[in-house]
Design goal:
It is built from nine helices and eight strands. It is of the alpha+beta class and 265 residues long. The protein has two domains: 65 residues, Arc Repressor Mutant, subunit A (Orthogonal Bundle), CATH 1.10.10.10; 174 residues, Beta-Lactamase (2-Layer Sandwich), CATH 3.30.450. Strands 5-4-3-8-7-6 form a six-stranded antiparallel β-sheet, sandwiched between helices. Strands 1-2 form a two-stranded antiparallel sheet. Helix 1 packs across helix 3 and helix 2 crosses helix 3. The two termini are 23 Å apart.
């Protein structure tokens, strides 16, 4: 097992760990709970929580002492979306794709061992009852269509970094949990130019995703179409995949023409 990378700023690392821990639930966490969960002194956790609360990144409920995320994070997230050149270039083509196939389209970015949805166009049929992933939702790379589309074009060292060493978590009974089987699937994705999530993240749902490349041929962003198994049955899969690939290629060409390159994380 590789040695854990030395943290250059333990206080910042702890603050971010606190934010991430609180974000994983809806009921909030107390100082004592966070200290136990993260293995840090209560005094240190208390100091960090006070600063985060004062700056608006957390709020505290006096009746139970629980902390929840603050609205300052929403402001930062909105700023991220509003200043995303990739999102601005992709949105018109995503809307056109949704108008043609009437399935919800997602734009996702490669995160740390997950893909993060950061834009979506909802199909007309779902305007009042959208059950697809929300903006900000994280999906496992090895199970989602966008994740597999992104992994398929990564170098072997990058693949090792993105895939957890402790095994592949099962999200549904259909999730690929064997590393060798996943690598074979990624080879197939490279040949086809698209990836399929066949109820691997959620039973009853299928997704078809394709990578978006920058001017240097690297990929950190992908799009996908999402629908129920009935909406994306076998008879429609090939046609839908072709539409997703075509749109991803159009977005890639736009990125290249605007000389857009992906940042590293």
């Amino acid at each position: 097992m590789a040695a854990k990378k030395e943290c250059l700023s333990p206080a910042v690392d702890r603050a971010l760990s606190i934010l991430e821990a609180i974000s994983e639930g809806n009921s909030g966490l107390t100082n004592a709970h966070l200290a136990r969960r993260l293995g840090i002194p209560k005094s240190s956790a208390s100091s960090i929580l006070s600063v985060l609360q004062e700056r608006g990144y957390l709020c505290r409920f006096p009746e139970n002492g629980r902390y929840k995320l603050g609205f300052k994070l929403l402001t930062l997230g909105r700023q991220l979306l509003d200043t995303s050149v990739i999102r601005d270039l992709a949105l018109p083509l995503m809307r056109d794709l949704v108008d043609r196939v009437d399935l919800t389209c997602h734009l996702a970015i490669l995160g740390h061992q997950e893909a993060v949805h950061y834009e979506k166009i909802v199909a007309r049929r779902y305007f009042k009852q959208d059950k697809t992933r929300a903006i900000g939702d994280r999906v496992p790379l090895h199970a989602s269509s966008v994740g597999k589309a992104l992994l398929a074009w990564q170098s072997p060292p990058a693949l090792n970094a993105y895939l957890p060493g402790g095994g592949l978590r099962k999200s549904s009974p259909r999730t690929i949990t064997d590393r060798s089987s996943l690598l074979a699937k990624l080879e197939e994705v490279r040949k086809l130019g698209y990836a399929v999530d066949d109820q691997e993240c959620r039973l009853g749902w299928r997704c078809v995703g394709a990578p978006i490349f920058d001017q240097w041929g690297s990929t950190r962003v992908a799009i996908c179409l999402t629908g129920t198994v009935a909406e994306l049955d076998d008879s429609k899969l090939t046609e839908t995949a072709a539409a997703v690939k075509e749109t991803a290629q159009k977005i890639s060409r736009r990125l290249a023409s605007e000389h857009v390159e992906f940042a590293t994380y």
